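Hi support team,

I've been running sequence recovery on a batch of backbones for a student project. Most finish fine, but this one hangs at about 90% for roughly twenty minutes before it completes. I'm not sure whether the input is malformed or the queue is just slow. I've pasted the structure tokens below so you can try to reproduce it. Let me know if you need the job ID as well.

Thanks,
M.K.
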């Protein structure tokens, strides 16, 4: 059995968890857990890697906080071709055809997904307000 699973089982057994709880948490058979429990009862000092609550142990460090890039600062590789893409969308072309033209005609090195995202963004037009004649 892998060492991290052994440590988890030893720790849960020392914490007083039942065999069924440990089985649900670790997906290890109750019969195997019973064997570990007998080993713990026979020699508690022979349990390698048991996590304890001693003051010398410290928790894992928090992950570093990363500052997200503001959407206005993140530039797409499609940005220089925005006018071409917008014109093609107005002609009713789909993102796949636009991407193929960008690669063939303009030497575009970006990904298809970036073209697809920009097309989706450009397709979102504000709703045109209209007057309801029934009012």
């Amino acid at each position: 059995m892998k060492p991290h699973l052994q440590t988890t089982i030893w720790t849960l057994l020392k914490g007083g968890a039942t065999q069924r709880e440990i089985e649900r948490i670790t997906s290890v058979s109750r019969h195997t857990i019973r064997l570990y429990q007998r080993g713990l009862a026979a020699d508690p000092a022979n349990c390698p890697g048991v996590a304890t609550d001693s003051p010398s142990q410290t928790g894992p460090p928090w992950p570093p906080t990363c500052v997200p890039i503001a959407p206005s600062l993140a530039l797409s590789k499609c940005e220089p071709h925005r006018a071409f893409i917008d014109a093609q969308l107005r002609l009713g072309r789909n993102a796949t055809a636009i991407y193929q033209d960008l690669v063939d005609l303009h030497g575009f090195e970006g990904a298809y997904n970036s073209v697809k995202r920009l097309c989706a963004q450009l397709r979102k037009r504000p709703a045109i307000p209209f007057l309801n004649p029934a009012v």
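--
Follow-up from support: It reproduced on our side and the slowdown came from queue contention, not your input. The radius of gyration is 30 Å. No action needed from you.
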